Amino acid sequence: MPSALVIARRELRGFFDSPVAYIVTVAWLLVSGWMFFSTLFLLGRADLRTLFAPSPFSPSMLLVVLAPAVTMRLVAEERRSGSLELLTTLPVRDLDVVLGKFLAALAVLGTALVFTLIWALTVASLGSLDWGPVIAGYLGLLLFSAALLAIGTLCSTFTDNQITAFIVAFVASAALYFVYWLQFFLPSGLAALAEFVSVSSHLDNMARGVVDTRDVLYYLTLGAGALLLAVRSLERRHA
Amino acid sequence: MSQPDAAAPMVEARSLHREFGTVRAVNGISFRIARGEIVGFLGPNGAGKTTTMRVITGFLKPTKGAAFVGGTDVAQDSLATRRRIGYLPESAPLYGDMMVLDFLEYVADLRGVPAAGRRDRLREICRRCGLMEKLGADISTLSKGYRQRVGLAQAMVHDPDLLILDEPTSGLDPNQIVEIRELIRQLGREKTVILSTHILPEVQAVCSRVIIISDGKLVADDTPTALMERESGSVVRVVVRGRGGAACDAEHVRTVLRGVDGVRSVAPAEHEPDGALAFRLSSAGKDDPREAVFLALAGSDLSLLEMHREAVSLEDTFRRLTRGEGGARA
Fold first, then answer.
1. Which of B76, B95, B98 is the best residue to mutate to test the A interface, defined by the most A CB atoms within 10 Å of its own CB?
2. How does pLDDT run across B180-224, given as a tens digit for each residue?
3. Which of A175, B39, B50, B246 has the least C-beta neighbours within 10 A?
4. Nearest to A89 among B58, B61, B98 (CB)
């Protein structure tokens, strides 16, 4: 088995041995479920837009909080306990360490997302649901989560303190999330830039059912960039 | 995997330097360690033992110089050298949330130990490390001694050529220390072992060679026996009293003793019963100063009550070599 998967399997077991995975899943289902169902019957539309669409009070905003909570311990805890020395003197590339940890975090948040399929099924039983936008929305939410988790993994490499890792990741993610709504106060050039860098604008497109390569590429670039920086940050131990 | 070079020394350090900011942790250390040696790194806390080990394992890069394992530069091909090393970091940092056997399986997975025969191999290692009754225990519930053994077992899963053990017996009780030393001695028959310690009898008990590091520099590199012989002068303990049971002045006696040929230093007096005073003298080189001391005292107003030559321990040697340079440490 590739080292990254061996590491991911251990991390995943760690998530489910500790309360983290359960708390995150329950918090996600309760809060986003309430956000979703409280408006479902008011709007009377058979779609899942409120689950996917970004707004300052939305399920995706909740992910901005939950993703750093999942990733905060990944590397910080190993730095604190010293086991990072053990791990990085095994014949394992730093890339495998980072990827393994990231994949475990993605599996946790992915599981939480999968549970919301029950709502899609509920809506489908109440009215005629167009599955196309639902699939696009889920893809968007997954890419969005992956990018946030990559940022969280990066922040966890900076420190041996989980709380610091959480706060830094949360502030960075929230900045990327809210800059979307800042565009209305900015001159047009800056507004376009704000829209481009924001993690929410790209999710907005996909929530409408539009899968644009640019949006997909944006998330992939952001995620891969953060993970590569995390590898560099791990390498700094040598210096 | 790179082909191990059979002619190359197992470990070689070439003028290693390692700085942390302005602190020079390792300041130009060079040595070669051949296959099958058990080498003890000895030095006061903060002398640079752990840093040197971390450079060999590839955890730290040297600021200057290079470390080689089996002829391969650690900084160039760290993955290849890491495969050949089993490493127990200081204070055995492990995953507390894992069970002992799961943890060893995890390390074996990452080390690419083949699945065939792995179970038997892990059981054999656990038996040798005395872990059989703890296989299913959470590592966080283990005592320091057991954690240390898990750390040792972890370093052995892939049957490495080279074991690097940073303070392998710290935190163990005397019985466990004896067991672990026996294990290290056994391992040393087939493998190269580098261990660090500040317990001197450990070096005498286990190692075929001692490297003493002080203040980032290598100050001695020899077999424990040769080191003691080379570095030791004689230490002689004398007990004196004034003629006819009279009390005597400590400073006066020290002056007399210092004047004896071959005596290098005289420790301050210890008080003995009945007004007698005890002194420890050390002499330079291999000369035995006892006769000269006897004659000098016979010609003075002092009576010699006792005199014997003390065996010089590695501890004395260690103190002498590491004092002054690294700051005096008791």
1. B95
2. 888 898 888 889 999 998 777 788 888 999 999 988 999 889 888
3. B246
4. B58
Q: End-to-end alpha-carbon separation of chain B, Å? A: 46
Q: Please answer yes or no on whether B82 and A91 come within 8 Å at the CB atom.
A: yes
Verify whether the Cβ–Cβ distance A18 to B91 is below 8 Å: no
Contact, A116 vs A50, CB < 8 A?
no
Mean pLDDT of B123-151: 91
Report field, pTM of the whole predicted structure over 0.90? no
DSSP letters spanning A58-80: SHHHHHHHHHHHHHTTTTHHHHH
Residue B190 and residue B161: Cα distance in Å, rounded? 8
pLDDT given at position B302: 86
Residue B85 with chain A: CB contacts under 8 Å: 89
Closest alpha carbon to B238 in B169, B296, B167:
B296
Handedness of CA B170, B172, B175, B181 (dihedral sign): negative
Residue B313 is classified by DSSP as P
Put simply, the answer to whether A91 touches B112 (Cβ < 8 Å) is yes
- Compute chain B's Rg from CA coordinates: 25
Q: How confident is the model at residue B286 (pLDDT cuts 50, 70, 90)?
A: low
Q: What is the C-alpha to C-alpha distance for residues B329 and B52, in angstroms, rounded to an integer?
A: 21
Q: How far A235 CA sits from the closest chain B CA (Å)?
A: 9
Which residue segments constitute the domains of chain B, with CATH numbers given?
11-230 (3.40.50.300), 233-311 (3.30.70.260)
